């Protein structure tokens, strides 16, 4: 199929950037979205032009490196997939596809479609860990009984790959879904309760410091999250935060 | 403490609590108003009580006004912060793909309701203050019914009331259930809360619209 692409090109963090038109022929339905961009880049390189820069790593939906706002939606129109797992069969011959970087003040553009998502790392560093020493004194996983429901919910929260689609989708560029997933995966387990009070306060403080917006419960994040992280996590984080704050 | 005021979650909770308070007030307001259609004498009686009871006038009324101000000021503060959080906008943003129009446009529906409150304050509150404290008129426990009905005589005012209540309905449609999520309530009762929200968001504004239209089409003949 033949596609009309409108791709955000931006030389570096300080340049202005604009949408540039490309026409790409010979796109197969079996290609992933990133493979389609690979084909475009080969063309560009062969013609002595600068290829389009975009983030990617595992290309199997597990690392959270790929991004892209595709026709106004993070990771494109498909549900529960990352851009690397989005197939071109979701598009038709002659389609126009607008490709932009994830937009948030806290995710500045580095070049073209590549944005700096290290704000997420700093939120994680503010409290997304437990201080149990696991090296050399590993305890049997079943030594502390954990209710199945909590273990499952914790596991689901832990499937967040930190891609940032929740921020990109949110009209407020809020990072609540990401942060709540990282808070929840520990909050639900006894091992995580030890630092629970400081964790939620520190992570929320860091999230606010990074300049993410405020959640207004539109639910866009949950719909666009490639891992199906639920809004229940945000409610849990709100509860955790309220009880941590009232505890002082 | 200042950290708490700046915290995104604390602000969300303030928004939720003030919103729920206003939702509760709205139901109470509706209960009194509907008597103007079904039992004008009761309407006069209750209105007189509300207008001259010290507790209502000097404690509850200031709390209500504070509730409106907090909800409005916080809403504007959040809107400004959220705008800054995406300083460079998307060229193409498909908001409808993942969230409802009402949830994305609370600021619009909210500002219309606020503008309506301006008119409403002018119509009733300013009038009351003038009647009681400035003009210093004597108590008249029978004036409320005809004063209210007369207000709805002009078509423009009735139309403005109707439009405002449609927007209030949209505001409630998202806001009521949303306030529970903000306070951390998302559990097996959530579907019931969402259903109740929808019923409330339709029934109460529709009721107010009915009252306005009823008085418009049934003027007091002198
Ligand atoms: S919550 Fe979902 S959308 Fe957000 S960072 Fe995690 S995986 Fe990505
Ligand atoms: S490249 Fe790893 S999730 Fe897409």
TrEMBL record, chain A:
<dbReference type="InterPro" id="IPR025192">
    <property type="entry name" value="Succ_DH/fum_Rdtase_N"/>
</dbReference>
<keyword id="KW-0003">3Fe-4S</keyword>
<comment type="similarity">
    <text>Belongs to the succinate dehydrogenase/fumarate reductase iron-sulfur protein family.</text>
</comment>
<feature type="domain" description="4Fe-4S ferredoxin-type">
    <location>
        <begin position="151"/>
        <end position="181"/>
    </location>
</feature>
<dbReference type="Pfam" id="PF13085">
    <property type="entry name" value="Fer2_3"/>
</dbReference>
<dbReference type="Pfam" id="PF13183">
    <property type="entry name" value="Fer4_8"/>
</dbReference>
<dbReference type="InterPro" id="IPR017896">
    <property type="entry name" value="4Fe4S_Fe-S-bd"/>
</dbReference>
<keyword id="KW-0479">Metal-binding</keyword>
<dbReference type="GO" id="GO:0051538">
    <property type="term" value="F:3 iron, 4 sulfur cluster binding"/>
</dbReference>
<dbReference type="GO" id="GO:0009055">
    <property type="term" value="F:electron transfer activity"/>
</dbReference>
<dbReference type="InterPro" id="IPR004489">
    <property type="entry name" value="Succ_DH/fum_Rdtase_Fe-S"/>
</dbReference>
<keyword id="KW-0411">Iron-sulfur</keyword>
<dbReference type="GO" id="GO:0008177">
    <property type="term" value="F:succinate dehydrogenase (quinone) activity"/>
</dbReference>
<protein>
    <recommendedName>
        <fullName>Fumarate reductase iron-sulfur subunit</fullName>
        <ecNumber>1.3.5.1</ecNumber>
    </recommendedName>
</protein>
<feature type="domain" description="2Fe-2S ferredoxin-type">
    <location>
        <begin position="1"/>
        <end position="103"/>
    </location>
</feature>
<dbReference type="InterPro" id="IPR050573">
    <property type="entry name" value="SDH/FRD_Iron-Sulfur"/>
</dbReference>
<keyword id="KW-0001">2Fe-2S</keyword>
<dbReference type="GO" id="GO:0051539">
    <property type="term" value="F:4 iron, 4 sulfur cluster binding"/>
</dbReference>
<dbReference type="GO" id="GO:0046872">
    <property type="term" value="F:metal ion binding"/>
</dbReference>
<dbReference type="InterPro" id="IPR012675">
    <property type="entry name" value="Beta-grasp_dom_sf"/>
</dbReference>
<dbReference type="InterPro" id="IPR036010">
    <property type="entry name" value="2Fe-2S_ferredoxin-like_sf"/>
</dbReference>
<dbReference type="GO" id="GO:0051537">
    <property type="term" value="F:2 iron, 2 sulfur cluster binding"/>
</dbReference>
TrEMBL record, chain B:
<dbReference type="GO" id="GO:0016020">
    <property type="term" value="C:membrane"/>
</dbReference>
<feature type="transmembrane region" description="Helical">
    <location>
        <begin position="159"/>
        <end position="178"/>
    </location>
</feature>
<keyword id="KW-0812">Transmembrane</keyword>
<keyword id="KW-1133">Transmembrane helix</keyword>
<keyword id="KW-0472">Membrane</keyword>
<dbReference type="InterPro" id="IPR034804">
    <property type="entry name" value="SQR/QFR_C/D"/>
</dbReference>
<feature type="transmembrane region" description="Helical">
    <location>
        <begin position="12"/>
        <end position="39"/>
    </location>
</feature>
<dbReference type="InterPro" id="IPR011138">
    <property type="entry name" value="Cytochrome_b-558"/>
</dbReference>
<feature type="transmembrane region" description="Helical">
    <location>
        <begin position="59"/>
        <end position="80"/>
    </location>
</feature>
<protein>
    <submittedName>
        <fullName>Succinate dehydrogenase / fumarate reductase cytochrome b subunit</fullName>
    </submittedName>
</protein>
<feature type="transmembrane region" description="Helical">
    <location>
        <begin position="199"/>
        <end position="217"/>
    </location>
</feature>
<feature type="transmembrane region" description="Helical">
    <location>
        <begin position="101"/>
        <end position="122"/>
    </location>
</feature>
């Amino acid at each position: 199929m033949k596609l009309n692409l409108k791709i955000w090109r931006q030389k570096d963090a300080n340049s202005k950037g604009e949408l540039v038109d490309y026409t790409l022929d010979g796109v197969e339905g079996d290609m992933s979205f990133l493979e389609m961009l690979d084909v475009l880049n080969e063309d560009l390189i062969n013609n002595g032009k600068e290829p389009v820069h975009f983030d990617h790593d595992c290309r199997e939906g597990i690392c959270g490196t790929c991004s892209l706002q595709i026709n106004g939606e993070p990771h494109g129109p498909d549900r529960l997939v990352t851009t690397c797992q989005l197939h071109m069969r979701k598009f038709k011959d002659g389609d126009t596809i607008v490709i932009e970087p994830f937009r948030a003040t806290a995710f500045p553009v580095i070049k073209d479609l590549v944005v700096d998502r290290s704000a997420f790392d700093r939120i994680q560093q503010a409290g997304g860990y437990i201080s149990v020493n696991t090296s050399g004194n590993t305890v049997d996983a079943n030594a502390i009984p954990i209710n199945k429901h909590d273990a499952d919910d914790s596991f689901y929260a832990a499937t967040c790959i930190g891609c940032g689609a929740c921020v990109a989708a949110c009209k407020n560029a809020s990072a609540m879904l990401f942060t709540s997933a990282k808070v929840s995966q520990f909050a639900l387990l006894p091992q995580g309760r030890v630092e629970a009070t400081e964790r939620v306060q520190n992570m929320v403080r860091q999230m606010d410091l990074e300049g993410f917006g405020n959640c207004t419960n539109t639910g866009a994040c949950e719909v666009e999250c490639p891992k199906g992280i639920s809004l229940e996590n945000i409610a849990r984080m709100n509860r955790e935060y309220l009880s941590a704050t009232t505890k002082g | 403490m200042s950290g708490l005021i700046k915290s995104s979650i604390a602000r969300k909770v303030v928004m939720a609590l003030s919103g729920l308070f206003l939702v509760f007030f709205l139901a109470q307001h509706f209960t009194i108003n509907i008597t103007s259609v079904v039992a004008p004498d009761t309407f006069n009686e209750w209105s007189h009580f509300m207008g001259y009871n010290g507790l209502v006038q000097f404690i509850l009324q200031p709390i209500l006004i504070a509730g409106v101000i907090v909800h409005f000021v916080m809403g504007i503060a959040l809107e400004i912060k959220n705008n800054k959080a995406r300083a460079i906008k998307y060229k193409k943003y498909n908001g409808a793909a993942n969230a409802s129009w009402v949830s994305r446009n609370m600021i619009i529906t909210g500002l219309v309701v606020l503008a309506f409150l301006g008119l409403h304050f002018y119509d009733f509150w300013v009038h009351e203050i003038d009647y009681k404290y400035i003009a210093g008129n004597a108590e008249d426990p029978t004036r409320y019914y005809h004063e209210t009905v007369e207000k709805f005589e002009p078509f423009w005012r009735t139309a403005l009331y109707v439009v405002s209540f449609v927007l209030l309905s949209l505001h409630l449609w998202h806001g009521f259930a949303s306030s529970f999520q903000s306070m951390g309530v998302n559990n097996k009762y959530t579907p019931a809360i969402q259903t109740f929200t929808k019923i409330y968001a339709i029934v109460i504004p529709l009721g107010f619209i009915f009252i306005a239209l009823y008085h418009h089409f049934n003027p007091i003949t002198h």
